[in-house]
């Protein structure tokens, strides 16, 4: 049995990226989790790999620092992270490179905040992802946001995870040969982490 399998969500500490001193030292561990969890495993060039990382991780760490959360175990090992933004991606120019947001623009009005959650494999299925989402949801609700969403592949295995965490499917769209699903969660000022 691995050390991680003996943990529960109660053994995890969530810290905001913006509150971690010298957080740049954690970038290699974040990148490792990001690329391991990604559905895209090969890139035509190092420039393409870098652009992919910036699109789905880097810009959030730079522009939405206060909405990035890291999960650490009792030995201060990085178990995973959640990055998010309160900005409506269908109406914010810095997200215009993600085409499916145009298809979901009517939904993002009510669910403007969005997030990405990734955990290292040893820390999955322990309640850590739910704890990250609940922390972000509570903070977003206190900031006055009424809804949060995720977009994932139409046949992705993480749909069930989001449904178990109070998201519901609100729409689907096709882009090229890919289908995407929009899942939203309503937030209330009473949410607590």
Describe how the helices and strands are arranged.
Elements: E1 13-16, H1 27-37, H2 46-63, E2 68-72, E3 78-85, H3 100-103, H4 105-108, E4 113-119, H5 128-142, E5 147-153, H6 159-164, E6 168-175, E7 178-186
Parallel strand pairs: 4-5
Antiparallel strand pairs: 1-2, 2-3, 3-4, 5-7, 6-7
Structural overview:
This protein is 30% helix and 25% strand. It is of the alpha+beta class and 193 residues long. The protein has one domain: Gcn5-related N-acetyltransferase (GNAT) (Aminopeptidase, 3-Layer(aba) Sandwich), CATH 3.40.630. The mean pLDDT is 93. Helix 5 links the parallel strand 4 and strand 5. A seven-stranded mixed beta sheet has the order 1-2-3-4-5-7-6, with helices on both faces. 31% of the residues are buried. The two termini are 29 Å apart. It has helices spanning 27-37, 46-63, 100-103, 105-108, 128-142, 159-164; strands at 13-16, 68-72, 78-85, 113-119, 147-153, 168-175, 178-186.
Protein traits:
Aminopeptidase, seven-stranded mixed sheet, 7 strands, alpha+beta
- CATH superfamily (homologous) name: Gcn5-related N-acetyltransferase (GNAT)
**How much β-strand is present in the residues?**
15-25%
The top level CATH class name: Alpha Beta
Give me the strand/helix succession: EHHEEHHEHEHEE
